[in-house]
Write a structure and sequence with these properties.
Elements: H1 12-25, H2 29-48, H3 60-71, H4 77-96, H5 123-130, H6 138-153, H7 157-161, E1 168-169, E2 174-178, E3 184-188, H8 191-203, H9 205-208, H10 227-240, H11 251-262, H12 267-274, H13 279-282, H14 284-300
Antiparallel strand pairs: 1-2, 2-3
Helix pairs in contact: 1-2, 2-4, 6-8, 6-11, 11-14
Length: 304
């Protein structure tokens, strides 16, 4: 039994919707648990306030009242946005099934407040970071290849450390990535990343994993590398590169997306490479690009 179905104190419609998400969209159990919690809390409030006996009976006024109550509790913007996504998805599922005629979420507004923009790096900072490892050593050559792949393909760190030998096709120049919800995507790698991958595979990998194995980037002990281990290495290389800003676990992924959008890449192509299920998640990078253009205008235009 999937984890999202455990403790079945929910209406049949919520359980049906969670099953549909699990089967059709392949969402992770963590994501499903978050959706389940949002829907369960909403339904519980409706029952406690005598507004409805289950969520599917909620009216626009009911959901508006619940949303107003939540906003009074200073809910984090991200949590508020996720709740809205949860309830909208729930009702739109039953609208698509023609079991509802009206969408009670149609008047709910997106949470207001400052948008959390992803941290990124300037192109020169990225170049300095990529050049920081000592490629005369096996560890340094491995780390250079990892950094190049991370930036060239826009991977999550968890996706990078999970890569296997068979994940890379050097002849076709692509990397097969397993992302959230075990969804696979094929991402092209640039010439620079492929060059350093070939050098690493030819000169260094055998030193790190002499007993053999399928892990593409083993630790210095020949085992699977953890995300934490690699990010400690990245922070060390950032210091060597003279980068002053604090680097988060997603910095190079954000730099990948930002630099693509800055240079006119199609947003849907960026969405596919990042593995975002929803285009709205990718659209934040257009906002980053617009802010950068505004900054350049103010700095360089005589009437800026």
């Amino acid at each position: 039994m999937p984890a999202h179905q455990q403790n079945q104190s929910l209406s049949a419609e919520i359980l049906e919707y969670l099953d549909a998400l699990w089967l059709q969209r392949g969402l992770s159990e963590n994501t499903l648990s978050a959706y389940r919690r949002d829907l369960a809390l909403t339904e519980h409030w409706l029952v406690q306030t005598n507004r409805a006996s289950k969520l599917i009976q909620a009216s626009p006024d009911d959901l508006g009242a619940y949303n107003e109550m939540r906003n009074g509790q200073n809910i984090a913007r991200r949590s508020a946005a996720r709740w809205l996504s949860s309830v909208r998805g729930f009702f739109r599922h039953f609208l698509a099934e023609q079991r509802l005629q009206v969408d009670p979420t149609q008047f709910l507004e997106h949470p207001k407040g400052a948008r959390s923009l992803p941290g990124s790096l300037a192109t020169t900072d990225v170049e300095n970071l990529l050049a920081a490892p000592d490629v005369t050593t096996a560890i340094g050559l491995r780390d250079r290849a990892m950094l190049e792949v991370l930036y060239a393909c826009g991977l999550r760190v968890s996706e990078l450390v999970a890569l296997q030998l068979g994940s890379v096709n050097l002849r076709q120049g692509v990397v097969r990535v397993t992302g959230k919800g075990n969804k696979e995507r094929i991402v092209p790698a640039g010439d620079a990343a492929l060059h350093w991958l070939q050098s690493y595979l030819r000169e260094a990998r055998q030193q790190l994993i002499p007993a053999g194995g399928n892990t593409l980037f083993p630790s210095r002990l020949g085992r699977n590398m953890t995300r934490q281990t690699f990010w400690h290495a990245i922070k060390r290389y950032a210091r060597l590169a003279g980068i002053q800003k604090d680097i988060s676990p997603h910095t190079l992924r954000h730099a990948f997306a930002t630099h693509l959008v800055d240079n006119g890449a199609d947003l849907r192509a960026v969405q596919m490479m990042l593995g975002h299920s929803d285009l709205s998640t990718t659209q934040i990078y257009t906002h980053v690009a617009q802010l950068r253009l505004q900054s350049l205008l103010r700095k360089h235009h005589p009437r800026g």
